Fold this protein.
Amino acid sequence: MFDGDPATDALRRAARNKAARWPSPKDEVNRLVPEAWPALSPRFTLKQTDTVFTIGSCFARNIERYLDQFGLDVPMMRFALPPEEMIEARPQAIMNKYTPPSIFQELERTAELLDATEEERKARFMDVLLDVEGGGYIDLELAGQTPVPLERGLQRREQVFQLFRNAFTADTVVITLGLIECWWDTEREKYVHPMPPTKELSRRKGRFQFKQLRFAEAYDYIRKTVELIEAKGKPGVRVLMTTSPVPLSATFTDQDVIIANLYSKSMLRTVAGEIYRNYQTVDYFPSFENVMMTRSPVVWAEDLVHVTDAFVGKIVDNLLRHYLPDASSDQQAMGRAVALLRMREFPAAAEIFAGLKPRTARIDALHALARLESGEAAALADLRKAGPKAELQGQECLLVYRRLGRGQAWKEGVKVIENALAAGQVGQTERLDALLRLARMRTMLKDTAGVGKALAEAEAIAPRRMSVLRSLAQHAMQMGNAEDAVKYLTRIIKSPRFKTLPPEAAKRMRAAKMIWNKKLEAAGKPMVDA
């Protein structure tokens, strides 16, 4: 009796959909436990030769590294910056576009300048450069806010333009939506990204205003983004859209950041869903659901903000298995082995690495690591040989240098860390760990100058972190530098974290400060808080 009735379509659709019912603990294959992997039916697939342009929040930075690792052409990975302008270990971080308007504005500007002369582009670039107190210019639409000379600001803008024009020649554009809290520039009548420095907010009162997007605004910016890519992009271009699971680190509303974050993510997830329904060139990939619906400590890094490198690897492996069916069996195997290694499933990873060909230093190093962690002590010699030569990526570096440190292979461990830092393969959340371990290994090698250099960089990153202060104090004492020893011991004792130390550890810290204060007094220098 339902023939021709829309209800018939709904019933038949539900009957055909094998994932229509919520998973049950009794299911033999469960899409929620132990990790959330919703069923996927891709609207399109990628080819190994495709160019993929990535834009959006910091989660896009995670995805692009793995796409590049799998052999796709990812223009964003070719972007470079001088060290003094980098806000993280990877130069691409300055390209983070967290909000719908920041995504659209960059693409719109690029499209409008595709046929412009260099001089015309320079004139347009001046619009996003702001002269700041103390000299120099910041870019109102780049994540980094280190002031640079005007000439460098214009030069970097040209770099950004040349990079973003790849969005209109790419086979696929990946867009990751991040948040809805924005800042509006009343003078330019454009959104800025991120918030301008607080000194500039005070200096230019009334010019910059906080704004939390409503659904219609967020949707409209992403609608215009998709339509711009379709109109100006490569014929047949596809858009793969996702919502970043990485939360707001702070909110400018009067709500608890947890509530503000869920409001933001819910809105952007709905925007992505509506865009998916209205544009056949767009597909939605559920990385947001993968993370938020997985009840496991392997998902979140220690900062409770970023997703672990290991779980990102599993997400991208899942993406490529569905969207890149033509990937070679070796590439797929490498991706699975690396994901298993990052998840610390060492015997399974070792088995896959053993069969991979052709052999490279990276494969040999990771194979040795997996064997070593599986209990094969003799593999340490292979790791010492291959590790310093290997072009390791992301968390691979962390796993290798930690294991070399435990094996007292200080020299090889230092080389692995130095290579990783120089190549920008250590992410923001892992850089501090790498520097502190580098300092400890150099200590074992009696490289005092190298220790000081590593700790100085660690202090610049996290000057109040207890682990940094303790390392600085220990180094100062080893060097016989009473002034620095007392300085860092005093910071430790005044730190809020000091109260959480075990009583014996706290007692030792106070005793050490007293001893080094007496050495200051003996040298004719004033004691500190004696």
In short: The mean pLDDT is 89. DSSP finds 21 helices and nine strands in the chain.
